[in-house]
Amino acid sequence: MNNSAKLRIAIQKSGRLSEDSLQMIKECGISFKNGIGALKAEATNFPMEFLLLRDDDIPGYVADGVADIGIVGENVLAEKQRDVVVAHKLGFSKCRLSIAIPKSEPYEGVHQLDGKRIATSYPKILETFLRNNNVQAEIHEISGSVEIAPGIGLADAICDIVSSGSTLFTNGLKEVQPIFQSEAVLISRPDMAGEQRALLDKLLFRIRSVQAARNNKYILLNAPESKIEVIKSLIPGMKSPSILPLAEPGWVSMHSVINENDFWEVIEKLQAEGAQGILVVPIEKMIL
Ligand code: ATP
Ligand code: ZN
Fold first, then answer.
1. Structure confidence at residue 163 (pLDDT)
2. Ligand 1 pocket, 76 CB below 6 A?
3. CA 14 to ligand 1: nearest atom
């Protein structure tokens, strides 16, 4: 065990998780120097060390204590079944694992898979799905290019990550059954304590602020005084909106925070209530 208070974080070296993982770290205000091809890097302004690895190895490295925390897809986490905990969901690298069959075949439900051979790189996730659905199928584990298995007679169906479906299509397959939803998560050893736990909490606080900022916008608008109450109810913000008098009598400027999810709907309602000169600006960080 390393007792110096430092967080070792395992990140995918190169792949679909890498860029967003590094971007998140950067927006948390953590900088590091990284030589091309380096497997390790040290943060310059936070007690953190980066280990750059294959994503498949990350749950194991964290479980074994080589790294304290890591960023990995829930799909890999569920497949590896290691003793780690999810500290926080990160909201990027969203994807799903699905079963696909030859596109010429009709699909009438999971029981059609009874007695079939299914090729996958995710045998454990698939096995759980089949068991929960009382389906008896033969699982063929293969590590890459799963989608060619039916074409070469190795399997009747596949279970793999689907994004656009175009890879499936070019291999004569169609998605018929989603079985697992995934996004990137920050994982940690279950037993983090003391100074390291405090460092993890510090990092989590920053991550939450970054995520909140991404999900919210700062909004400024002009409104007639008579509309203050109704507009206040539309943009309540973190506590309540700021209200400043305008030079023009009977008018105010209102400032608040608005959530990305119901953004356009609220804007339409504000306009209907007579709001004018609406400005919406990004928030750099949002401290909750
Ligand atoms: P490595 O070389 O590190 O083993 P890999 O080829 O196994 O990489 P990637 O393709 O880089 O893995 O995918 C990493 C993770 O990103 C996946 O486990 C999954 O969680 C997520 N992911 C995969 N495909 C997509 C996609 N199309 N869209 C979004 N996220 C995805
Ligand atoms: Zn991998």
1. 76
2. yes
3. 3
